[in-house]
């Protein structure tokens, strides 16, 4: 699997008073994919487990979307380091990019609140299945 892909129809609640998708809605859409990806790595969100925390976001809004638009959400994992990995998020409308975002996801010990290495089984899956390249 090189990327996770999911069809999405823009909901009324995603839009603002100007009739286009509010800038925060895109990030909520990708939260759903981020959770699905973490669980696909055999990880969980239990209180005493490793947690994926968004450490950095870089966002580009390329074209507006409106209520009812049919889009495709794409999550790819291009790279990872010792305690973090990168998600690239893309929204496509009719095959054209309308939104892109790079997120640095940091692994944290939920009980202690400190950075910890990516769990070995998750690391292996991101490299072998998702095509992530190890850096640093």
From TrEMBL:
<dbReference type="Pfam" id="PF13279">
    <property type="entry name" value="4HBT_2"/>
</dbReference>
<keyword id="KW-0378">Hydrolase</keyword>
<protein>
    <submittedName>
        <fullName>Acyl-CoA thioesterase</fullName>
    </submittedName>
</protein>
<dbReference type="InterPro" id="IPR050563">
    <property type="entry name" value="4-hydroxybenzoyl-CoA_TE"/>
</dbReference>
<dbReference type="GO" id="GO:0047617">
    <property type="term" value="F:fatty acyl-CoA hydrolase activity"/>
</dbReference>
<comment type="similarity">
    <text>Belongs to the 4-hydroxybenzoyl-CoA thioesterase family.</text>
</comment>
<dbReference type="InterPro" id="IPR029069">
    <property type="entry name" value="HotDog_dom_sf"/>
</dbReference>
